[in-house]
Specification:
Two copies of one chain form a homodimer. Chain A is of the alpha/beta class. The first copy, chain A, folds into three domains: 56 residues, Orthogonal Bundle (434 Repressor (Amino-terminal Domain)); 127 residues, Rossmann fold, CATH 3.40.50; 142 residues, Rossmann fold, CATH 3.40.50. Helix content of chain A is 43%, strand content 14%. The longest helix of chain A has 16 residues. At the A-B interface, helix 5, helix 6, strand 2, helix 7 and helix 12 of A face helix 5, helix 6, strand 2, helix 7 and helix 12 of B. Strand 2 of chain A pairs antiparallel with strand 2 of chain B, so a sheet runs across the interface. Chain A binds a DNA duplex through helix 3 and helix 5.
Chain lengths: 359, 359
DNA sequence: GACTAAATTGCATGCGTATGCAGACCATCC
DNA sequence: GGATGGTCTGCATACGCATGCAATTTAGTC
């Protein structure tokens, strides 16, 4: 007893790793039977199934999904790539996506590219994990990588961004339509010198919002839309761009920002310059992040229907379908809705009211 | 040719699932060699290694980490359980945790309990994935579950919350010390009627912050600390509690909230009541969420050193150690620091300044 | 050139599970 | 009673890779 021999029993005891084999042995049945007890489809008598479940609970047996994956070629894992967790828009997105994934019995493998790391760089790493599907948020992959995924029958959906030529799914809100709503709204409420402050220049979200806004203004016979480059979608970018813009002569009377966080930076910048919102200038964002509803900002914005978008994104992955039976690339655009708050005001009405009150 | 026979080649071609076996065949070597080419430790000639890597790239071969896990008994996955993604504190936490996990060559399996779901409910599900370690944020597990994890040699660390008797690791900021700093600061700046607004009543974070605050006030001979129950850590709770509190007679001159989000709700509530911050009342939060730095709130608060905490949390998991060689449960408390902004003011100095300016 | 030691490679096996196939068992019917 | 059909279970194998051991090659030495 002094010298310890490493027997199988000892190892099992130490590792406390209960396998189907162990359960089978205590019950005097085959391992197959244990497997079938935990399968939905396999044929097994209710009586036996119950016996197995009971024994499994007693021994603390849980099927090893890793081993299962090897055979079934499905890991029940969905990779979610989040390029950005800091912008308050994305935690909400992540939350909804994860809920959708989990509600379908899948789990989330989360990837956050380190600063300076491209999505293409982490894709190989990600594919090694044999995930059943991939969700990219605010990021795109190369067409070469898209082809690799297609060859592996691993569906990819791009959330909130799309690349026209790319053979992957895309779900996004209808940014063009949203931006048009903003244009309509600002014109209807008597604004005459609107400006657009862009975020990340080449992002489709940015381009669509700008183009939708500018082109709709033109349709409404308002040809001059000031444009200012923010550089990225951050608070700081919105703040800095607003300062630059408002220090120049010929103030706009309305600012439409590429996203809410920028707009909030814009509000703070305007206030610092002693320009009051909305009396002197109206401010509109895009996304409807939780912060936009706070009384201190009360930002008029376009609400992105995140829950619906997340549902659409996960739906399009066809998680229930076996490999090779997936549908072709789909693009879904989901319309947003204008949420009017007090960062904007009607510049027609106040004139009449003002006159009336002064008489 | 009309009838297609399902040969192995055909299947391989269709599935495009390249295995080590495939690479071995094209090179005329054994599968073991391929395996060794992708291992750090195994012995293989540089020449052969190069040949294998080249062939692997050409065929698009990537080792299947799932299959590897079956042998090595390590999945290189860390489960992170996030009970809350909405509070702006947690996206930052998640970001830092994921960075830490990834920088060690591990991946993150993210679990978000659905509303009404307990952490204990999802643990079995989580353990099935054979994760190498578990990080719980703002959540605790039962001692029974802790024992199961211990038996499996799966280290668990509780982030930002701890349960004294539980045999799991814990990393949190030193909430008692932080709250004491707030007490010291408020007294030093001449506040005389401080109040504490609590969040989730039984959370250790809440209890420690309240107790640290109240006990320190007593030490400083300030025996009356008003207390108000928020109920949870939300904006709404902070807002509602503040309204209740400030409508009653005998205003406090300083409010210390259990967390920043509540404090921000408190600021908005005070402003709505026409009570100005900080002139009429000082407001202090806890966490230093990004929002606290915005000019519209500019919240005095205790900064939690999230990066350091995340590093400590992942360090304590001993990811590099093989199973069975893990260290015993550790509790680490990391001190925070007071960040003074303009939601508080010195109630001693202004008197003098006021008199001076009026002379 | 022969021998030893070291480096490299192949062979065989196992990780824990799912599943096709065949056998065992039971009930039903003519 | 034998044949038929159906249900359930066990056997054997495979998933893709890592690794101990044996076989082989290479280098090094006298």
């Amino acid at each position: 007893m002094a010298r310890r021999s490493i027997t199988k029993a000892a190892v099992t005891k130490a590792g406390t790793h209960v396998t189907a084999e162990d359960v089978a042995r205590t019950l005097g049945v085959s391992q197959s039977t244990i497997s079938r007890a935990f399968s939905m489809t396999a044929s097994i008598s209710d009586e036996m199934k119950l016996k197995v479940i009971k024994a499994a609970n007693k021994l603390g047996y849980q099927p090893n999904v890793i081993a299962r994956s090897l055979i079934t070629r499905r890991t029940n894992m969905v990779a979610i790539v989040m390029a950005n967790l800091v912008d308050p828009f994305y935690p909400v997105v992540l939350d909804e996506l994860v809920q959708q994934v989990q509600s379908r019995g899948f789990q989330t493998l989360l990837f956050v590219p380190s600063p300076g790391q491209d999505v293409d760089d982490i894709m190989p790493n990600l594919l090694q994990y044999q995930v059943d599907a991939i969700v990219l948020t605010s990021a795109t992959i190369s067409s070469a990588m898209a082809r690799i995924c297609a060859a592996r029958d691993t569906p990819v959906v791009s959330f909130n961004r799309y690349v026209p030529g790319l053979q992957i799914h895309a779900v996004s809100s209808d940014n063009i339509a949203g931006a048009r709503q903003v244009a309509d709204f600002l014109v209807a409420t008597g604004h005459e010198r609107p400006a657009f402050i862009s975020g990340e220049r080449d992002a489709t979200t940015n381009r669509d919002r700008r183009n939708g806004f500018v082109s709709r203004l033109k349709q409404l016979k308002m040809n001059s839309c000031i444009q200012e480059e923010g550089g990225d979608f951050s608070y700081e970018a919105g703040y800095a761009a607003t300062k630059r813009l408002l220090r120049r002569a010929g103030h706009p009377d309305a600012l439409f920002f590429a996203c809410d966080v920028m707009a909030i930076g814009g509000i703070d910048a305007a206030r610092e310059l002693g320009i009051s919102v909305p009396e002197d200038i109206s401010i509109v964002g895009y996304d409807d992040v939780p912060m936009a509803a706070l009384p201190s900002y009360s930002l008029t914005t376009i609400r992105q229907p995140i829950r619906e978008m997340a549902k659409a994104a996960v739906d399009v992955l066809d998680l229930a379908e076996p490999r090779g039976m997936k549908s072709g690339p789909t693009t879904r655009m989901i319309p947003g809705s204008l949420i009017t708050r007090s960062s904007t005001m009607n510049r027609r009405a106040p004139v009449r009211v003002g006159k009336a009150s002064r008489r």
